Amino acid sequence: MADLTARETGRLWFLALKGLNLALLIAYSFGMVFVLVRAVPPGFYPWMVMLSSIGGYVLAVDLGFSNYVYSVVRRRFLTHELAGAEELVAEATSLYLIVAAIACALAAPFVLALAPAGLKLAMFGYFATIVLPLPWMLIRRAAAAVDLHFQIEALECTRRAVFCGFGAIMLLGVPLLGFVVLSLGGWLVAMTAAWALLRRHGFHIRPGRPGRVLAFLAENRGGVMQSGWFTALEFAIYNFPYLAIPALFQGPANLVGFDLFNKVARFGGAAYSVPAEAFSPQQTRAYYAGDADGVERYQRLMWAVGAVPMVIGGGLLIALGGPVFDRLLAGVHAIPMELRCAMAAMLAALLLQSSAGGFLLSVGRYEEVSRVALVTAGLMVAVVAVTALFDLSFTDFMLLYVLAYFVHAILFEACFRRLSGRTRRVEVLA
Asked: Which portions of the chain are predicted below pLDDT 70?
């Protein structure tokens, strides 16, 4: 009984830490909008949004590979064979650092061409801070695989709090370059701390050889291809408007509007990951035990917990979003009520999708979810075509985008219902 109480207490502390991390993520995401609109020359902020979106495409290079690294490390950790796992993580991390460096080199001409004379170096460094989460996400997954999830979450929480402080001091007159230097230093400290944490608990990472990662990809190409295909489709669904909007509409305001929409969607995804990560072990255990009622019960729990940020977030967007966004963007770019309603609707669709999709991925149903994502990608192409053909407004485009995503969420839920139904039939036959 005492062990059970300790586990429950630990889970509550972990949930509290995840909640604090979520709050810091929101504060940093929207706080940086507030700061950068005021810290860079007028009219330049939309170009920073575009640069950030390019950085997001770099992060998509992961293509679910970190999930496979996690599964390998976790298995070897539980069987006390960490030597090979250490080499794998080291080589994968080295490869990700190389990818980040190459991305910075490729972005350099773009930055030099568009950035004002006094901001070229600062913008280049800012891009580097955007792509460094690529190796960081792999390090976090490796730490979680060796039962250091609480410690690495606490380190991530500290990093985010410090980075929020770095952003805030720009309001006191610190230039963008100063923020960049502090952020790069912060990333160095965070990665060093993570490395020390892993070593202190017996997981030794040394500089690795990228060739071993290529061998790993060859050995597991079937699973990695499935994961990569789904991740690529999902990334395109969430981020293609960054490329489509400049082609469909004139002026930078629309791109800024979508960037805020995307930040709200990321808030929803991060908020819903809290109950998903808390209930996933029990839900998957119920699935493999043939307990269909248990599988569906934990989904309802995810809905109940996720409904709290959905209702609060949606209500605040509709009731207070206008003045808040005006203040956030210094009154330069207006966010109309229709777009705020689309944001609120997106939060609802994301709750439906994440509760079903998280479970489907946790039991390896990549083929089914990839088919759904492919259908949704086709719907998004149709949204672009209809917008261009009928010369629709940006707000109409966003409403169609949310409608297509609702179809995406409903299809995910249908897959979940079919799978839980098969589980119930197996239970009856047993």
From this structure: 1-8, 10-11, 56-65, 67, 71, 78, 207-214, 216-217, 219-220, 223-224, 281, 331-332, 422-430
Half-sphere exposure of 67 (CA within 13 A, CB side): 18
Phi-psi group of 291: left, alpha or beta (phi > 0 → left; psi -120 to 50 → alpha; rest → beta): beta
**Rounded to the nearest 10 degrees, what angle do helices 337-362 and 394-429 cross at?**
30
Q: Are 332 and 196 in contact (CB under 8 A)?
A: no
Q: CB–CB of 286/295 below 8 Å? A: yes
Q: Name every residue whose Cβ is closer than 8 Å to that of residue 181 and which is 6 or more positions away in sequence.
A: 125
How far is CA 24 from each of CA 27, 79, 157, 197, 258, rounded to the nearest angstrom? 5, 36, 7, 22, 21
Backbone φ and ψ of 71, nearest 5°: -65, -40
Cα(202)–Cα(73) distance, integer angstroms: 13
Closest CA to 406 of 368, 351, 361, 365: 351
The tally of CA atoms less than 13 A away on the side-chain side of residue 28 is: 20
Tell how many helices (H) and how many strands (E) occur in the chain: 16, 0
Q: Amino acid letter at 131?
A: V
Are 189 and 57 in contact by the 8 Å Cβ rule? The answer is no
Tokens of 270: 């991060």
Distance of alpha carbon 63 from alpha carbon 240, whole angstroms? 16
**Torsion over CA: 272, 278, 283, 285 (sign):** positive
Phi and psi for 250 in degrees, rounded to 5?
A: -90, 145
Q: What is the pLDDT of residues 245-298, one digit of tens each?
A: 999 998 777 888 898 899 899 888 888 888 887 777 678 778 878 888 888 998
What tokens appear for 321 in the block?
């979003």
Q: Name residue 98's amino acid.
A: I
Encode pLDDT of 138-183 as tens digits: 888 888 878 888 899 899 999 999 999 999 999 898 998 999 999 9
